[in-house]
Automatic annotation (TrEMBL):
This is Probable molybdenum cofactor guanylyltransferase. It catalyses: Mo-molybdopterin + GTP + H(+) = Mo-molybdopterin guanine dinucleotide + diphosphate. The lineage of its organism: Bacteria, Bacillati, Bacillota, Bacilli, Bacillales. InterPro entries: MobA-like_NTP_Trfase (IPR025877), Molybde_CF_guanTrfase (IPR013482), Nucleotide-diphossugar_trans (IPR029044). Coiled coil: none annotated. Transfers a GMP moiety from GTP to Mo-molybdopterin (Mo-MPT) cofactor (Moco or molybdenum cofactor) to form Mo-molybdopterin guanine dinucleotide (Mo-MGD) cofactor. Keywords: Cytoplasm, GTP-binding, Magnesium, Metal-binding, Molybdenum cofactor biosynthesis, Nucleotide-binding, Nucleotidyltransferase, Transferase. It comes from Anoxybacillus pushchinoensis. The gene is mobA. The keyword Acyltransferase does not apply. Its EC number is 2.7.7.77. GO terms for molecular function: GTP binding; metal ion binding; molybdenum cofactor guanylyltransferase activity.
Length: 189
């Protein structure tokens, strides 16, 4: 069972005011935390980002790609699809770049839930789905493509056409994404 880890770092970070992938926690860019959480668990880590992010970060054993041109800048669904189009695997573990408290234990427990009877393994924290910290089976690539072709970019719409296994997670902090400077100063300083 080949597994690819996908880190989504292509967002515009409008609310944050600068690329969140480059924001620091304990002297390390946010992006590093997602890559490290995946590195020993997957066969390959793929970062979907704009070229200026790659130029500013030096990461070994990581593949860098941009969204496929047809769907460039269309959000997380386009990023996940782009990685699936470039790299073949059975399962894809997806993480965003703006969750600097993520750790390997969370990713390992998600991977252990992989089940061919489902298209997606999605954790729930406080009864809220976390579709960007999730696992997707390769067969959803065509569903993603169909959504993108129809101009439907929302993850929840895409998931409504999938067989989803919901995993209840108790630990909240690893799923905390930092979207604004206020959140940054509150949780990181």
């Amino acid at each position: 069972m080949k597994t690819i880890g996908i880190v989504l770092a292509g967002g515009q970070s409008k609310r944050f005011g600068e690329p969140k992938a480059l924001a620091l926690r304990c002297g390390k860019p946010f992006l590093f935390y997602s890559v490290e959480a995946l590195r020993s668990i997957v066969d390959q880590v793929v970062v979907v980002a704009q070229p200026h992010i790659q130029k500013q970060l030096q990461l070994k054993d990581v593949q860098w790609i941009e969204d496929v041109s047809q769907h460039k800048g269309k959000g997380p669904l386009a990023g996940i699809y782009s990685a699936m189009k470039h790299y073949e695997a059975t399962w894809y573990i997806v993480l965003p770049c703006d969750i600097p408290f993520i750790h390997k234990t969370i990713v390992t427990s998600l991977k252990q839930q992989a089940d061919d009877a489902f298209d997606a393994i999605v954790p729930y924290v406080n009864r809220r789905p976390q579709p960007l910290v999730a696992i997707y089976h390769h067969r959803v690539k065509s569903l993603m493509y169909d959504c993108l072709q129809q101009g439907e970019y929302r993850m929840y719409t895409f998931l409504s056409s999938c067989r989803v296994k919901h995993i209840e997670m108790k630990e909240e902090q690893p799923f905390m994404n930092i979207n604004t400077k206020e959140q940054y100063y509150k949780w990181i300083g």
